Amino acid sequence: MPSPKEGGAPRKAGSAPKPPPVVFAVANQKGGVGKTTTSVNLAASFAAAECRTLLVDCDPQGNASSGVGVRRGSFEVSLYDVMIGQAELKQAIVPTEVPLLDVVPATQDLVAAELELVDADDRAVRLRHALRPHVDGYAFVVLDCPPSLGLLTLNALTAAHRVLVPLQCEYYALEGLTHLMATIDRVRSVFNPELTVEGVVLTMFDGRNSLTHQVADEVKAHFRVFDAIIPRNVKLSEAPSHGKPALLYDAQSKGAQGYLSLAREILEGPPGAAADPKTRQRGETAEPEPQAEPPPPPTTGARARDARPRS
Fold first, then answer.
1. Is the separation of the CB atoms in 105 and 57 below 8 Å?
2. Which helix (H) or strand (E) holds 254?
3. In this predicted model, what pLDDT tens digit does every residue of 268-300 receive, in sequence order?
């Protein structure tokens, strides 16, 4: 995959109109499955592929912000100000050390947004209205969701075109996946009919564990699972403490290479689809395919054999 361009300026597109950005929500209400790690490193990998990318930190913990080197106190406007209507999105955008990658940071103030918006009629679409009209010039927008199915995650799913689900291969992960898919179905039916599940990313993968393979097989029987697998990797754990994506911390590490492979797979798209924003136009995509039923937790005995296409 190409290395980041020097200077950080987006490539000129000539006279042809730029395609609209693709908005990804990285979501899973279960904590500790690698949502923020995936958001940060996938966004950096898109940027390394010369796709101008905006990372939006929707988690009050602000880990995605610090993961790209934007520390608390280094900015005046955050996503909280945008969501309550006190600032426009462009005022909250902060450049990062990675060329072509910007971030909208978050702080703990974002917790208050859920309380302040609880009686607002447009509480579920605040982020969509603040985001979509103001991200022209970006190829991708990556939304890092908090580990819950509350108002912030609802706003992210309403603003997104596609959902990316990081999944750690353990027993309880499948139960969480069931709840997440039910929530996505409700968001699609009420707020965002174009929302689709891009696929499941297997994270913290340990091939020596037999349960890991069993859970992976169960998920593959019902959903599109990316070929790119993110292994357990110490460099992925160390990189945030240095305020860098793994791509800058150690580009040759297995973790960094895993996310580069994931970005390449998304850019190439599933068979028969064009996911590259350089060729994708909003009106060209077909209606979303029906979502598969979530898998049950793994049980002893034969597994589901009616393998279905990606959601």
1. yes
2. helix 254-268
3. 987 554 444 444 433 344 444 444 444 444 443
DSSP 30: S
Pairing of the two strands 196-203 and 162-168: parallel
Q: Can you give the three-state secondary structure of 110-125, one letter per residue?
A: HHHHHHHCCCCCCCCC
CB atoms within 10 A of CB 76: 10
Is residue 171 a contact partner of residue 298, using CB atoms and an 8 Å limit?
yes
Task: Kindly state the DSSP code that residue 280 receives in the 8-state scheme.
Answer: -
* 104: helix, strand or coil: strand
Closest CA relative to residue 262, chosen from 180, 189, 205: 205
Collapsing DSSP to helix, strand or coil, 292 comes out as coil
Tokens representing 144?
Answer: 């890092």
Any idea of the CA torsion for 241, 63, 215, 170, to the nearest 10 degrees? 80
Radius of gyration of the chain (CA): 18
Contact 200, 219 (CB under 8 A): yes
Distance CA 6, CA 215 (A): 42
Global pTM value: 0.81
User: If you count them, how many residues does the chain have?
Assistant: 311
Residue 253 is given by DSSP the state S
